[in-house]
């Protein structure tokens, strides 16, 4: 029974991993950093103008995931707008965030977005022997489909994102990670997989606790 349950658990784990398009490719935390119960975290997303939907989706997904740990996470888009800090000095931005009670800041950036074109060839299955011995018309049709059925191209979009988490009181980087997402299919799927990869890793490293 134990072997059976272990096998089922392993299969389920593999299937869950397979469903996620995101892969953590690097992860760093400040040596000696201790777990801290953050109370209010600002979530800032950075993308190009054409990827506004992705920025908002990633911000919302990460904030939602952080909220699961009893931390009040608020997106920069909803609190300040997308470019509030652009024309501020370091001192002005730091003061604004501290005055609003944030003790943690996580910056999420879309570093790269590229498309790949993949060619899928036509069927290359072997002609069944029974068909070869059958009527020549059946053999003709099977081979015709194999010879003349064209392959086709598909386009996949891959993303590379980075997350940097700062202690607002110390103004110090606590955590940094990069994630690649392979053709997630939608901004929602990209954001969900990315947020889970990042926040789960931060929890495992003891940077976020309940």
Keywords:
alpha/beta, six-stranded mixed beta sheet, Rossmann fold, elongated, 7 helices
Molecular structure report:
With 210 residues, the protein is an alpha/beta fold. The chain has two domains: 2-114 and 153-204, ABC-type transport auxiliary lipoprotein component (Rossmann fold); 119-152, no CATH class. It has helices at 2-19, 52-67, 76-79, 90-99, 129-133, 136-148, 187-204; strands at residues 22-29, 40-46, 72-75, 104-120, 152-167, 172-182. A six-stranded mixed sheet has the order 1-6-5-4-2-3. Helix 2 (52-67) links the parallel strand 2 (40-46) and strand 3 (72-75). Helix 2 (52-67) packs parallel to helix 7 (187-204). The radius of gyration is 25 Å and the shape is elongated. 24% of the residues are buried.
Helices and strands in order:
Layout: H1 2-19, E1 22-29, E2 40-46, H2 52-67, E3 72-75, H3 76-79, H4 90-99, E4 104-120, H5 129-133, H6 136-148, E5 152-167, E6 172-182, H7 187-204
Parallel strand pairs: 2-3, 2-4
Antiparallel strand pairs: 1-6, 4-5, 5-6
């Amino acid at each position: 029974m134990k072997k059976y349950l272990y096998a089922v658990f392993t299969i389920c784990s593999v299937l869950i991993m397979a469903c996620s398009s995101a892969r953590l490719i690097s992860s760093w935390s400040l040596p000696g950093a201790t777990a801290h119960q953050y109370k209010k975290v600002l979530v800032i997303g950075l993308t190009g103008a054409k990827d506004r939907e992705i920025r908002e989706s990633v911000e919302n997904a990460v904030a939602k995931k952080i909220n699961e740990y009893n931390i009040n996470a608020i997106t920069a888009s909803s609190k300040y707008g997308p470019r509030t800090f652009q024309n501020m000095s370091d001192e002005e931005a730091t003061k604004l965030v501290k005055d609003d009670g944030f003790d943690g800041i996580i910056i999420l950036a879309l570093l790269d977005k590229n498309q790949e074109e993949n060619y899928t060839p036509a069927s290359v299955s072997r002609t069944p022997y029974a068909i070869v011995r059958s009527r020549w018309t059946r053999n003709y049709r099977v081979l015709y489909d194999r010879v003349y059925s064209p392959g086709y191209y598909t386009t996949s979009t891959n993303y590379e994102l980075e997350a940097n988490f700062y202690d607002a009181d110390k103004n110090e980087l606590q955590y940094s990670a990069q994630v690649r997402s392979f053709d997630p299919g939608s901004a929602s799927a990209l954001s969900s997989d990315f947020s889970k990869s990042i926040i789960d890793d931060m929890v495992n490293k003891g940077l976020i606790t309940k």
